[in-house]
Specification:
The chain is 29% helix and 36% strand. It is built from three helices and seven strands, in the order ββαββββαβα. By secondary structure, the chain is α+β, with helices and mostly antiparallel strands.
Length: 119
């Protein structure tokens, strides 16, 4: 039996769990990086949904210093998606992350599965 949960977005709109998951699949995460700092951007239909910036602290460590999700995308998991992209990047390159940004720090504190990259 298929379970059909629905989320009330406002008084006039409902979306199914399936539609909500499809929304997340359309978001693209990009990364720009240089020797001093970098940025991850969440992009939906050519619109920037959020950004997460970091600065390098040596050759194998970076500091997440800011995460911002733009108002029309708040509450949709964009910030978490940005932090998880940084975690994937750190794992792939054997880097460590120091999360100083309050959002990233809180996410690291409550997510045991990403402690392997925490500095």
């Amino acid at each position: 039996m298929e379970r059909r949960e629905r989320y009330q977005l406002n008084h006039f709109t409902e979306v199914s769990v399936y539609q909500r998951l499809q929304y997340y699949k359309t978001m693209e995460i990009t990364q720009e990086n240089n020797q001093k700092n970098g940025i991850f951007k969440a992009i939906e239909n050519d619109t920037i949904a959020g950004e997460m910036t970091y600065v390098w602290a040596g050759e194998n460590k970076f500091i997440i210093d800011h995460t911002e999700v733009f108002p029309e995308f708040e509450g949709k998991g964009v910030g978490k998606k940005l932090v998880m992209a940084a975690v994937d990047y750190a794992r792939a390159n054997d880097f460590k992350i120091l999360p100083l940004c309050p959002f990233a720090k809180a996410l690291f504190e409550r997510t045991k599965e990403i402690q392997d990259v925490r500095f």
